[in-house]
Amino acid sequence: MNVDFTALPATLDILHLTLGALSLLLIFLLLVKARPRQLPVAAEPAKPVEAPKPVQAPVQPALKTHSPDAALQLLSLLQQEARFIDFLNEDLKGFSDAEIGAVARVVHEGGKKTLQQYFTLAPVRSEDEETRITLPEGFNAAEVRVTGNVVGQPPFTGTLVHRGWRVTGVNLPKLADGHDARILVPAEVEL
Description:
Blueprint: H1 14-34, H2 69-82, H3 84-89, H4 97-118, E1 119-123, E2 132-135, E3 156-159, E4 165-170
Antiparallel strand pairs: 1-4, 2-3
């Protein structure tokens, strides 16, 4: 995908800044929910072979529930480095586009620093954007979203619009026992 950076506006409006910030938060929440948990495997003694049991109706898998601590921790880190929560909660109606743009630069740089420090990211697809690719039968729909006029069955041939992102590593700081992750940033009192 070729982007002409000279065509971008010189100032950023609050809608696009808010959408960008919310996108980062939603991506993180999706990644936290999609992260597989590894459970310890205990060795079991060999069991004698039993007669087959009658076939039962399939059981619907239970939905996973996760502790929100990792998401809250990331939100706290984004606040510390990028003043993310302060920015989103600020009423920007009285500020000029230049003032909002200056603050957006702080949010962008701090958010980028946080992502780079605590996450290892890689593209889902290795091809260049705007190239033609073919998705074979049985492609992973969690990795590739097919859009446009989707008719019939795979293989599908189309243009790669976005390579996608996947997390290949997470290195969030360890939380101490008893730490209240709901306190994203403590209140400050100057004496």
